[in-house]
Amino acid sequence: VKGLCEKEVMADKVIWPVVYKVMANDIQSVYDQTDGNNAVILSFLESGGIADSEITVSVPSISDKFANEYGSNDRAYRYIATSVITVCTDKVDEVLALMSRQAELLKKGVVTGGNSWENPVEFKYEGLNDIKPQMIEEATRNAREAAQKFAKDSDSRLGKIRTASQGTFTIENRDSNTPYIKKVRVVTSVTYYLKN
After folding, report:
1. In this structure, are residues 92 and 15 in contact, taking their beta carbons and an 8 Å threshold?
2. Is the Cβ–Cβ distance between 142 and 3 less than 8 Å?
3. Which of 36, 167, 168, 185 is the most exposed place for a label (fewest CB within 10 A)?
4. How many H-runs (helices) and E-runs (strands) does the chain carry?
5. H or E element in which residue 160 lies
């Protein structure tokens, strides 16, 4: 018989890349805009309870459209810089609150966003070891209930366990709209002796 246990848990860690681009025709303007935007974003993050130690500022990636041998040079701006400020923290609720307030950055002239496939927000659950014993116990209990029903239906009595194996724990998003809610699942397989 197999015994299933599923549990919904909140993510306990989040990695949030805050991505923005700046454009200019001279490199100094790119650096000045980047410094200004970084200061605004860092202030915004700190106002939401994120500590300096939970923030990483990456070196901007700068492309020079005039140096690109493909495409035309009739672009409005020569330089485009992409910057990423990454938050890595266990303060999931604080990050969710900040994400809903991103319009505040727009009001200050910082347009955040980017490709969600290149810089996705990641919600993780790292407290599995805390709930493992309880989940294995519940899955084993569910397996025993199934075995007792099987034994009763076959006019037998349930004997001792012959073999038991714990399945693999899986952690997935509950759904695509709430990736910060995780579904943890385990299936145990138990073989019992039957007595007539």
Report:
1. no
2. yes
3. 168
4. 4, 9
5. strand 157-166
- DSSP of 2-29, one letter per residue? EEEEEEEEE-SEEEEEEEEEEEESSHHH
pLDDT tens track, the chain, 196 positions: 999 999 999 999 999 999 999 999 999 999 999 999 999 999 999 999 999 999 999 999 998 887 765 666 566 888 999 999 999 999 999 999 999 999 999 999 998 886 667 889 999 999 999 999 999 999 999 999 999 999 999 889 998 999 999 889 999 999 999 999 999 999 999 999 988 8
The Cα 191–Cα 146 span in angstroms is 11
Q: Is the pTM of this model over 0.85?
A: no
3-class DSSP assignment, residue 151: helix
Helices (H), the chain: 27-47, 92-100, 103-107, 128-153
Instruction: Classify residue 45 as exposed, middle or buried by CB count within 10 Å of its CB (0-12, 13-18, 19+).
Output: buried
CA distance 22 to 66: 16
Question: SS3 of 133, please?
Answer: helix
